[in-house]
Amino acid sequence: MHKRDYYEVLGLDRGVGDEAIKKAYRKLALKYHPDRNPDDKGAEDSFKEATEAYEVLRDPSRRSRYDQFGHSGLRGGDFGFDFGGFDLGEALRAFMRDFGDPLGGAFGDLFGAGGRARASERSGSDLRVKVSLGLEEIARGAEKKIKLKRLVTCKACGGVGAKKGSSLKACSACHGTGELRRVQRSFLGQIVNVSVCGQCRGEGRIISEPCNECNGQGRIAGDETVVVKIPAGISSNNYIPIPAKGNDGSRGAPPGTLLVYIEEEEHPIFERRGDDILCDVPIGFSVAALGGKIEVPTLDGPASLTIPAGTQSQKVFSLKNRGLGRLDGRGKGDLLIRVTVWVPTKLTKEERSLLDSLSALEDKQGLEPGKVFLRKLRNLLGD
Predict the structure, then answer these.
(1) What is the spatial distance between Cα 252 and Cα 117, in angstroms, rounded to a whole number?
(2) What pLDDT digit, counting tens, does each position of 313-330 carry?
(3) Domains of the chain, with CATH numbers?
(4) What is the three-class DSSP state of 276?
(5) How far apart are the first and last CA of the chain?
(6) Beta strands 276-283 and 335-341: pairing type?
(7) d(Cα 265, Cα 132) in Å, to the nearest integer?
(8) Reported pTM
């Protein structure tokens, strides 16, 4: 299915600020929200499309990737950018997360649990971890196992927090709503203040007998190993969101997200330049002047490089497709070899004699030093 440009979906120009994105999305979301358009599949699709566009453009990392590579830059569920399965429930949760309930409770069953989502039924918090990668791993992509400590739903009580077999009672203060409403009159009319009930902490229910395993919290500490697939070409400050691997939410609310931040290790030989890598290689006088083949390092092992005669110091040669894999999966960068003419700090008698002869010839004929060097060095070395 062809996807429309996200800026087009929200009716925005590229380069707009965060507030403009948020404002444009809110307007469309309210227009097409399912509660205002019951049984209207077209409106539902428009709501999901607008929310999908908003979820990408509101996030600096996702927006940067989209601006560079379009929809193809967001593919791959392992990288956290696969919105092919973006469903209505996710769209509703995203809208509620940033805008609450502007229709005053008309949104109904957002979490599939019946009634309004209670204040205590919050999504689980996100977790953040760092993963260090060498340049070789970045070049090819990698798979990492990460050991996590996260809050998981208590199996003994199913996340309810109450001891099995016990009952939950409606809070007497808020009558089971989880909210306290206070109505005040002003010259503008009635003003309604809504706050979380302090007695039940927004739960709406009172636990008479807490679960012995979680002490009524509904969650316990757990260990888990998560396998993260890291695409080739990723760099420091990029992160990979892994949905549903943060802390579990309370009372059956959705879990948070695991954010895997990338830290690139410094390489002893190669310097990264985007998708290209640079390596400095010293060569001798004779190779620079006469030309020849040298062996150079690459991420895949040694390779041969032909040096043409008369090569100057700091000359950069390019080996195509020997750099880093590109993040969008379209080929590789290049390996850049920068040669430096090596000047010996100590000379043998024979070397010194040859160079003295060359210097004398330059002075005698008054020729440009570079041309004399190339021509006479060839003669002296018997080329």
Answers:
(1) 11
(2) 999 999 999 999 988 888
(3) 1-116 (1.10.287.110), 118-166+209-265 (2.60.260.20), 271-380 (2.60.260.20)
(4) strand
(5) 66
(6) parallel
(7) 6
(8) 0.58
